[in-house]
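Query form — protein Glycosyl transferase

QUESTION: What is the three-dimensional structure of this chain?
INPUT:
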Amino acid sequence: MRGSFPLRYALLTLVLAVFTYLYGLDSRFAPKNGDEYPYMHIVRMTADAGSWLPLQSQMDGIKNTKPPLIFWQGIASTSWASQWSLENLRWPSVLYTGLTAFFLFLAVRRFSGKTQTGFLAAFVWLSFFASYRYGRPFLTDPPEVFWLSLPFFALLYWGKSAFESKLLFPVLAGICFGLALFAKSFAYIVPATLALGLYYWHWRQWSIPQTLIRDLYKLILIGVLALGVFGLWFVLDPQPEAVWREFVLGENAGKFAARSSNYFMDFVRGGDSIWILLLTTVTNAGLSTFVLLSTLMQCWRERRFLSVEEVLLLLLIGAFLVVFSLPSQRSGRYLLPVMPAFAALIALHWERLPFWGFRIALLLQGLVLSILLWLGINLQTSLFMGDAGSWSYSPTHWGLMAIALIVVLIGLIKKSQCKTLALMGCFLVYCALTSSLGPLEGNLGRFSAQTIAQVQGKDVWIPCDYRAKDEEYRLLLPGAQLHGYLAKDAGNSESLTKTYPLVAVHAPLGSAPAICDSCLILGQRMEMRARHSDEEIKAMLLGHIGEYLFVTEYLIATPVLSTELLNVKDVCR
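ANSWER: The structure tokens for Glycosyl transferase are given below.
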């Protein structure tokens, strides 16, 4: 293993990548998608019902929002919700992500003949921000990416024996695709079989008759098997009509409806246009976006000399891109299954890639780290928190920030280590981001054990700005019966304490909420705000961070009777 990525760097990056994906796995502030809350809710409700199917939910219109595999995974990892924690819900996602990286490593090492290139492909994929954001939380993406990728990895690994397999590979591929559909959506069979068809067509040297005669039956078998696995949902679910109505028609067919004016205008302009799809797909790489762009530019320049494997990787990307440009709702998240292919292309071109993409990546990393360092110093030295507590970092945090900044500076200065340190810097930035919010994961951001004990079994009203946001509060107030009110009203403590018997309200740091004489504050904690006005953003840029970025959340008992709220809507539902 020579070149710009020797074995010692590979082993160091491996340790760093594993640590990054495990560090802060149970954090409420981990980069994620809001779908995690509804999924958690469905898991908990289904587990409480004591049956694998039908899926259960208290949310209006959100029950059969995804196939049951992801929810069964959550039920199993939490032992029927008896060991309820973010860590237990999320560790299977990290396992799926790790397995995807491992099989990507095996495939690329096999066809490239270089262990170094295999390592690079796995690490580059793990360093993409989309892999980190969607590959750790309790979401459908990790199993979907793994099961969809596995047959393509197998073709790249075994080559001729897999392409010429008459039954074994098609059966295994059909089962893998079926599990992907059972985790996400039956719609993925279209890009998956299209990409596989292009693989076979290329293998037959672009001969349509040969492909139809020798491989068409394989594609049909794979598609039938995959849809058969997905169809088990209708067989096993005692309410198949609800699955058809809510998932097939609502969740999937609805994505072809025009989003604003009409389908064709939406295709070329607006937030769901084809251009947004292309942009968000490339920016899935996060800090390595310009490295990916330089790779694609090099592939175009060398298009006449691309290897068979590079062509196959590009065919996989092209098939998914074409298919997911057809629905009116277009998102780079739908292209997550092809991000390992992008990473493999970067690894294959690694030694020949220009330095400008890596230098931009290092500059972006330096910018993020500088902002985090400025925020951290401001928070630790400010006295704005009053009674909320003290924002204090451990020496480990400052050591991590120093190491990350040194790595970035060395990468910018030393050309020989620029590419390797740009790769390692991505993981260090993710660790720094998690560490920077560490104080909120401790006592500062949590209610005391005494407060939790006081609300056991009681109805508590909490601010809700997303469906099933109460599932996050369930981790903060275990045992309480939670209900949601509009988060925009959280600062109106006077009105809230006249409406709810037990309510969480927000107040600026250092100031107490306006409450009635007979109201009682049971506890308090510090919370980070999600939405800010333009004036507040300007104030934070001028250094007034804590006053606007955070609030104190008070849990208040009032003389209001619970019977007065029988008809009040729970906005978390």
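ADDITIONAL NOTE: Residues 446-565 form a domain with the D-Maltodextrin-Binding Protein; domain 2 fold (CATH 3.40.190).
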